[in-house]
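Board notes (copied after class):
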Amino acid sequence: MVSIIIPYFNSAKFIAETLDSVRNQTYPDWECLLIDDGSTDESSAIVADFVQKDTRFVSLKRELGPKGVSQCRNIGISSAKGDFILFLDSDDFMDVNCLKHRVDFMKSHSTLDFAVFQVETFGLEKKLMTSFKPDYLEAFLRFDFAWTVSSPIWRSDFLKALGGFNIGMSALEDPEIHVRALQLNPNYRVEVDADPDIFYRIWKESVRPDLSRLSSMMDGFFIYMRLVDEIIQQQAYPIELLADGLMKILQRLRWADGNTISNFKDELFEFIEKLSVSGIRKKMAQNALKSVSISGKSKQNNRKEIELMMVTLFPGRYLRSYLKSS
């Protein structure tokens, strides 16, 4: 049996389409665990209707712990009865042969801990989300994410042994669990050339930056950065990998106010010190960071200081980012 885990929060707009795609699977031996993260719209009523009509749908609710997909997915993992586990977002959908294709593959490769399949975006953007990398762990450490949360099908006992998602993260929780899995030197396959069998929706609300969540998102980024730093020290990956993560953090902090930036000043100083760049460039970046924390600075001035930090520390990366966005 396959356990499909779907957290949801105010997902009334698309969740029926998602659940229809599960119900229409040609592979019949599945359970779909739906975990409500405190919805206030019609999501729960839609889910209840599916549960009433098909007992393979199971309704669960997050009662305790922090809000978010990580806690909800962990509830699903602990409740899962299947030999295999797959994650699906509440606004995405599956090809009718998705489960059959993935389960047949896992059964024919009985030593695999997990297998990764192709996912394609749709809506505002169309692209394939699973890509080939010579070293998948290094790619994830470089913030070059080779697949998304719906790409793998996991052997249940392997996933449960990982201990679930990090509930302290509200950003990068998906790549974080993938990094922890890859650290264990697992037996896995990445089917880059397979036809996509899950479709990931890109729509206006999902790409709009949420500045109200920026501080909690940064918590997730720095948890991930500490994991990257730990693996660099343990496995002799290049310290340069930290630069990729720090660049991503600074790109987001351009939109933050001075208080938010000041909250992460110590972490930023720490990772700037670890970079393999000249002392002069580090000093210039640290001076710019000190300037950001001065009270009364406007967001526009703060953004200029953050831009200066990026240009000083990562001129090549900054130029590539600028050219890509222009």
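Comment from the instructor: The chain has two domains: 2-207, 212-325. The chain has a mean pLDDT of 90.
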